[in-house]
Amino acid sequence: MVDKAFAMLDKDGSGVINLEDIAGIYDVSMNPEFLEGRKTRDEILTDFLSNFEGAKGNADGRVTKNEFVDYYTDLSMSTPSDEYFVRMMESTWQVPEEENTEVVQQTVAHLLREVKTRVFELARRNPEFLKKIFNDFDLN
Question: Rounded CA gap, 16 and 111, in Å?
Answer without folding.
Answer: 31
